[in-house]
Amino acid sequence: MTAPFAKGFSTAYKRARSQDSPTPLASPPVLKATKVEEEEQVEPGIPSFLRQSQSAIRAKFNDLAWKEKLRILQGRSDPSSQWTQDTGPMVMKRNRYGNVQPWEKSRIHLKVAEGRSDYINASPISLRDPRTGVETKFIATQGPKQSGLSHFWHMIWWETTDVAVIVMLTQTHDGTTEKCFQYFPLNVEAGSFKVEPLDKTRDTPEGSVTLLECHVDEDSRTEVRKLSLKFGADKKDVWHFLFSGWPDFAVPEDNDRTALLQLLKLCAEKNTLPSNPRVIHCSAGVGRSGTFIALEYLLAQVDSGAILDAKEGEDMIYDVVNRLREQRMLMVQMEGQYQFLYEVTRDQLKQRHLQASRQQSPKSDVQTSGMNAARDVHYGTEAHDDFFSHAKIDESQAAGAAAVNPGEDQAEKARAEGTF
Question: According to its UniProt record, what is one Pfam family this protein matches (predicted)?
């Protein structure tokens, strides 16, 4: 398998993977990012990076792909590099996909006896708020395999605090292809799932996962489960969120897009502290997982107003995706997902401005309301101004650009490999 880089990278990538031709690329090609289109009206209060053309955004995504390619090449040529990856047989056996795994110096280590493999395909993620300095933590991981079920639950036990939060962004199967093993009980009738000790030679207790309650949250279109994770006499509550409105090789659309925004809020509310890492996974743990994490961070900057602190020439979305990829490869894997971040962030910021302008102009609202009331009495109708209470995100398809740009080649490769 080869990683699905943008079109034009495939030949160089194959050379990089070949042991016979290890020559690295000296530098990426020159990428000419298109500036904000001259005919586009400058919107007050919208940072310039949110007013870029699709071609400019595409160029930046390609630049991110080149940066990652160079990290991989450096990791292969320099054993002391922070971008090295373990390619041992045990590691490859535990990976769901052969081309997606953590950087060796940025991964979760299982608590095992000395001499045993502590590998799990999971990466610690940390994003710092630019205003407050508070770090919000996550763990991005692949959908567990059946052979890794115990590894996954031991990681949940050791890496989270008193309450664990898991967000699952994939179905267990796509047709006949497994995307994630069924690692939790779907209903009470399923009984408890057993969690084997990682070291059976030691006198360590067997664990269990039990379903306590389950319901569907209509606003977020999410199956919400409260689970109990237990080892011996000790136990921990686990909130599990299964969101099925995010299809492979695409982004949420229409009502699913609105539901995703509600899920972001819901899972954050169940968490105890930003320092308690929420566990986010899809199938490979990079595409949808990376987009989810990036989107939560960006919308937090919209809420706080920090997004308006961006200086001319600064691109907060490019920067956060680059930081994510420094912590786990391929985060925000597809160009359509990258475009999606710009769309949703821009639309949410516009809604904020709209709400703020109405709150700051009560006199104007009263006058407008009076005029509307007089008009309605005149015509015998009842006014229903639902625009502001039902403002929706622009539902233009975020992945549309992929059909006419290098992202199409990525999508075809990703489909062939199933690594999304």
Answer: Y_phosphatase
Identified catalytic residue from 180, 214, 267, 282:
282
* 282 among known catalytic residues: yes
pLDDT digits (tens, 9 = 90+) for 331-368: 999 999 999 999 999 999 999 988 877 877 655 554 54
Within the chain, how many helices (H) and strands (E) appear? 10, 10
Q: Is 95 part of a structural domain of the chain?
A: yes
Residue 133 lies in a domain: yes
CATH number at residue 171: 3.90.190.10
When divided into structural domains, the chain yields a total of: 1
Domain that holds residue 183: 10-34+48-366+394-417
Q: What is the pTM of this model?
A: 0.79
Contacting residues for 15 by C-beta, under 8 A, at least 6 apart = 21, 23
Query: 173-211 pLDDT, tens per residue?
Result: 999 999 999 999 999 888 999 999 988 766 678 999 999
Instruction: Count how many residues are written for the chain.
Output: 420
- Give Cβ neighbours of residue 204 (< 8 Å, ≥ 6 apart): 197, 198
Three-class DSSP category at 200: coil
Nearest to 262 by CA among 182, 184, 348, 341: 348
